[in-house]
Amino acid sequence: MEKTFFFLYSLVVFLLYFLALPFLLFFSFKTKYKDSLPSRFFLWKNSPLKSDGIWFHSCSFGEAKAIKPLVDALPTKSLRMSTTTHTGFDAIKEYTNQSRYLPFEPLLFWWTKPQKVLVVMEAEFWYLLFVLARSRGAKTLLINARMSERSYPKYLRMAWLYRHIFKHIDEVYAQTELDKERLVSLGAKNVVVTGNIKLSKLPTPTKTLVKPDGLVVCAASTHEGEESLIIDAFLALKKEQADAKLILVPRHPERFDKVALMIASMTESTELTWQRYSKNNTMQSDIILIDALGELVNIYTVSDIVILGGAFEPIGGHNAAEAAQFGCKIISGKHYFNQVDLFAAVEGIAIVEASNLSRRLSQHGLLKPTKLKYRTDISPIVESIKNVL
User: Fold this and answer.
1) Which superfamily is assigned to 216-372 in CATH?
2) pLDDT, tens digit, for every residue of 186-212?
3) Could you tell me the pTM of the whole model?
4) Which residue of 82, 155, 157, 255 lies most exposed, with the fewest beta carbons within 10 A?
C-alpha cells in the first residue's frame, strides 16, 4: 500500500510540475521571484547540500530566526539549511554557506543527499521531503508543530495524506497539549510537548537606538488592510497628543513601496511629516516607515506601545513575546489563531476589534506594560539531534 501511494503521489507531482512549467518560467522574471523560483523549480544556482549534516528546513523569516537557539547549540560545520521564501533565505544564509532554496518535490529525487538528521519547522508537510530524507538515512523531526483551531478541519479533510506523511516522521515536538492531540489524530507518533521554541531564546537588539521624543507607537509586522486602519487610529491620536510618533514596520519587504505611497496619500492634507528609514534613520518625523529587514527588535526597545499586526485581518497573528520582553504595552486584533500559545505566555495584551482600535489607542493610559510568564526548554530537541551525530 505504501509503495503504491509513493508511486501515485510521485506521478501526480511530476505531472503538476510539467503542466506548471510555462507559468513558472513567466513568473521567474518577476522581481519578487527572480531568485526563489529559478532555484526551486529549475535548480538554477542551487546545488545539493553536502552530505552527513543536520538539515534544517524552515519557511518564513520568522521561522528561520526562531531556530537560532538550536543552531547555536550545534556544531556549525554540520549545519545544512533550506527554505522556500526569499526572506527565509536572507535569514538562513547567516548561519552557514550550506543554505539553499528547497526544490519543488519531484526535483528532490536528484537533489537530496544523505543527511544524519532532517529537522522541519512547524507545518512544512512535504511528503517527498520526509520520505526521501528518511530513506537515505536521516532521522526525521518535526519541531514547533502546531495545528490551530482554524486549520485543523482542513487537515482532517486531507487526513489520508497526512497519515502517509507522518509514517515517515520519527519524532514530533509540539507546541501545546492540544496540538499534540490533533497531530496524533492525523497519525503523528512519538509526540512530545516542548512549548513554542520561539520562547526559548528571544531575538536581542543588534544596535542601540536613541528613543525619539514623545509617545512612540510601533505598528509591527503589518499586512495588507492593516496599515490604513492603524494610520487612521494614529491620526486621531495625534490630534490629542501632538508629540506622538508612529513607526510602521510592514511584514513583507515587497510591500514597502506600496505602504510608502499609502502614507504619502493619507498625510497629504495634513501637516504631518514622514520618512523612509532607509533614507533617514534619525526617526524624528511624525511617521517613520521601516523599509529594512531585521530592525523590528531594535524598534521595540524604543517603543511605548506596540500595535501588533497580523491579527486585525485573518492572518493568524505574530510573536507578541518579542515586544513583551521589553515591557511594551501591546494592542492586538482578535485573529491571532496561529499564536495562541505565545499570547498565553504574555501577560497584559489588549485584544480589540479592528473597529475599536482608534478608541483603545486614545485610551493608552489604561494599557498595562506586558511581561513574559515563562520560557521554553529546547533541550529534548537538542539531545535528540546530538544522539545521531
Assistant:
1) Glycogen Phosphorylase B; (3.40.50.2000)
2) 999 999 999 999 999 888 999 999 999
3) 0.82
4) 157
